[in-house]
Amino acid sequence: MNKLLSVKNLNKVYYNKKDEIEAIKDISFDLYEGEFVSIVGPSGCGKSTLLNILTNMDNLTKGNIELKENLKLGYMLQSDSMLSWRKVIDNALLSLEIKKEKTEENIAYVKDLFKKYGLLEFMDKRPFELSGGMRQRVALIRTLALKPDILILDEPFSKLDYQSRLKVSDDVYKIIKEEGKTALMVTHDLAEAISISDRVIVLSDRPCTIKNIYKIKREKEGTPIENRKDKNFANYYDLIWKDLMFHE
Ligand code: ADP
Ligand code: MG
């Protein structure tokens, strides 16, 4: 297997005027090409901090991050943060604009993604005219516009209601697979993590350490919705739930 990313003994401490907050303690894991890995952990344990460090939006205190050379990370945040006055297509082109990569070729690629994923007729609408699920797909396309090798997702479905969350996680999963991307997703929803992932990394309370890493085995690979019906699903749910509930 082709290792794309390696996190080694990562530590993060926030230093304030008065005190220090230890957010991450000695986390190590690898990410391989084509994998979908989820990270679950209690709220406030340091999940977003970890992703911010991986994407260079924050710095680490101790440890190492090794990214295979020339690979690009794409970061999709919890909020779709669309500019309300801009057309949906112009929102999707925003990341290219910021990076000064808004070439004809890249614009064509984004339009192609709109077409492929059922959004063509919404290109010229404003964000408020779209459902929450559509906006998440647009946010994903905006991230894909920069052609990242690894997608980093921070609770991408948490703002959606339960019904659309299931549907949108199926859609997002299909797009990520279809486009051949590797994904690392943070969520606090363990059913979501188990149903979408090849592996699930379970974190402890803050400062977060790795409690367990589960390789998710299924009778048959399906979409996240189908995977919820797999006979091993309840068993993983039980195991991870116990990891999250019981502290030593
Ligand atoms: P999660 O995403 O798991 O809910 P976060 O990574 O956002 O948690 O936060 C982990 C801990 O680090 C929290 O206790 C939070 O208050 C603290 N923290 C996050 N960002 C900062 C910061 N910039 N300065 C100080 N403390 C922070
Ligand atoms: Mg967070």
Structural notes for this entry:
Helix 5 (132-144) runs parallel beside helix 6 (162-178) and helix 7 (190-196) crosses helix 9 (233-245). The chain is globular. The chain has nine helices and nine strands. The chain has helices at 47-54, 88-92, 94-98, 104-116, 132-144, 162-178, 190-196, 224-227, 233-245, and strands at residues 3-15, 20-32, 36-40, 62-67, 73-76, 150-154, 182-187, 199-203, 210-215. It has a six-stranded mixed sheet with strand order 5-6-7-3-8-9, sandwiched between helices. It is α/β, with parallel strands linked by helices. It folds into two domains: 1-71 and 152-171 and 181-248, Rossmann fold, CATH 3.40.50; 77-148, no CATH class.
Quick tags:
single chain, 248 residues, alpha/beta, Rossmann fold, 2 domains, 6-stranded mixed sheet, 3-stranded antiparallel sheet, 9 helices, 9 strands, globular, binds adenosine-5'-diphosphate, binds magnesium ion
